[in-house]
Design goal:
By secondary structure, the chain is of the alpha/beta class. Helix content is 45%, strand content 19%. The protein has 2 domains: 166 residues, 3-Layer(aba) Sandwich (D-Maltodextrin-Binding Protein, domain 2); 117 residues, D-Maltodextrin-Binding Protein, domain 2. It has 11 helices and 9 strands. The structure holds aspartic acid. The site of aspartic acid has 17 residues, from helix 2, helix 6, helix 7 and strand 7.
Length: 329
C-alpha cells in the first residue's frame, strides 16, 4: 500500500512538474535557436522576406533564427511539417497566400487546415503580384500579351512554384481571364523559376514583387502589370492591371509567420513582439520597401488580424480556383 502510495505520489508530482513546465518554458523562451521553415527554394520572395525579418527577430530574441528551406508540393510539404512540429516556439513557418489559403481548394486531401492547425503570429509583408515575361517575349504591353497568348497558347510555357503556390494560383486567375491553358512548368520556388525566366527557358510567370524588382530594374525580364489598385512605388513605371486593360486581375499576396497549434500564448506574444520590432526597424523597413513589399500597419500585425486574413483569403480564392477547375492529384 505504501509502495502504491509512493508511486501515485511520484505520478502526481510528475504531472505537477509537467504543468509547471509550460509557464516556465514560456518564461525562459527562447533558450535555444529557432528554426524558421521557408516552404520554397532560396532566393524567392518567401525566402527573401524570411531572411530580412528573421535576422532582426534574432537580435530581439537573443537567439538565432535559422532558415530551413523545405521544398515540395507548392509549399504544402513544409506547412505539413510545421503543423506537426512540437508546439514549443522552436519551429515556426513563413507561410503565404498559397500555403495558408489557396492550397485549401487546390488539395482536397490537404493534411492541415490553415485556420485551425496553426497559431498565427503575424503578417510580415504584403507582396503584390506582377505578370512577368522573359525579356524577348514578343509583346510590348498587357494587351499584346493577351493577343499573343491567345494565338500561341499551345507553345507557351508558364513557370510557377508548384500547385498551391502564389505563382500557380495567381497565374491560374490570369489564364482563366484570358482563356488559355499553357504548359505548366513547376519549380521548387520562384527563385529558380526566375532564373529560368531570365535565361529564357520559360515564357511567363506571375510572382510576388519582393524578388522581382531587381530583375525588372536591370531589364532582364518584362513586367506587364501589377495586380494591386495602385502602382508599386518600387516599380513606378509598371501599370496596374486596371490601367493595362485587365482590371479583373486582382492579385496581391502576403507572407506571414505561423506556429503549430497549441504553442503557448506567452511564446506567441514574444514572437509577435519580435516581428513588430523588426517591422518598426528603419533598416528592415527600407529593405522591404525598396523591394516593393507593403509593411502592415500596427493593426495588421496582430495574430488576430492574421487569423482574419487567412479566413478571408480562403473565402476569396476558393471560388476562383474552383471556377478555373484546378485540383492537385
Ligand atoms: N513566390 C513563390 C510562390 O509562387 C514562392 C517562393 O519562392 O517564395 O508561391
Amino acid at each position: 500500500m505504501l509502495f502504491l502510495k509512493s508511486i501515485v505520489g511520484a505520478f502526481l508530482g510528475l504531472i505537477a512538474l509537467g504543468l509547471a513546465a509550460g509557464p516556465i518554458a514560456a518564461q525562459e523562451y527562447p533558450s535555444r535557436n529557432i528554426t524558421l521553415i521557408v516552404p520554397f527554394a532560396a532566393g524567392g520572395p518567401t525566402d527573401v522576406v524570411a531572411r530580412i525579418v528573421g535576422e532582426h527577430m534574432s537580435r530581439t530574441l537573443g537567439r538565432s533564427v535559422l532558415i530551413e528551406n523545405t521544398l515540395g508540393a507548392g509549399g504544402t510539404t513544409a506547412s505539413t511539417r510545421a503543423m506537426r512540429a512540437a508546439p514549443d516556439g522552436y519551429t515556426i513557418i513563413m507561410g503565404h497566400m498559397g500555403t495558408h489559403a489557396a492550397a485549401v481548394a487546390l488539395y482536397p486531401n490537404l493534411a492541415y487546415n490553415p485556420s485551425t492547425d496553426f497559431e498565427p503570429i503575424g503578417m510580415a509583408s504584403g507582396t503584390p503580384v506582377l505578370i512577368l515575361a522573359k525579356r524577348d517575349f514578343p509583346a510590348k504591353d498587357m494587351k499584346e500579351f493577351v493577343t499573343y497568348a491567345k494565338a500561341n497558347e499551345a507553345k507557351l510555357n508558364m513557370a510557377h512554384a508548384g500547385i498551391g503556390s502564389v505563382s500557380f494560383t495567381t497565374c491560374l486567375l490570369l489564364n482563366s481571364l484570358i482563356g488559355i491553358k499553357p504548359t505548366s512548368i513547376p519549380f521548387s520556388g520562384t527563385g529558380p523559376a526566375m532564373n529560368a525566366l531570365v535565361g529564357g527557358q520559360v515564357d511567363f510567370m506571375c510572382d510576388q514583387v519582393v524578388s522581382v524588382v531587381p530583375q525588372v530594374q536591370a531589364g532582364t525580364i518584362k513586367a506587364y502589370a501589377v495586380g494591386t489598385p495602385e502602382r508599386n512605388p518600387a516599380l513606378p513605371d509598371v501599370p496596374t492591371a486596371k490601367e493595362a486593360g485587365l482590371p479583373e486581375f486582382k492579385a496581391s499576396a502576403w507572407n506571414a509567420l505561423f506556429a503549430p497549434k497549441g504553442t503557448p500564448k506567452p511564446i506567441i506574444d514574444k514572437l509577435n513582439a519580435a516581428l513588430v520590432a523588426a517591422l518598426d526597424d528603419p533598416g528592415v523597413r527600407k529593405r522591404l520597401i525598396d523591394l516593393g513589399g507593403e509593411i502592415p500597419n500596427r493593426e495588421g500585425r496582430t495574430p488576430q488580424a492574421l487569423a482574419d486574413l487567412v479566413k478571408s483569403e480562403i473565402a476569396k480564392w476558393t471560388p476562383i480556383i474552383k471556377a478555373a477547375g484546378a485540383v492537385a492529384n
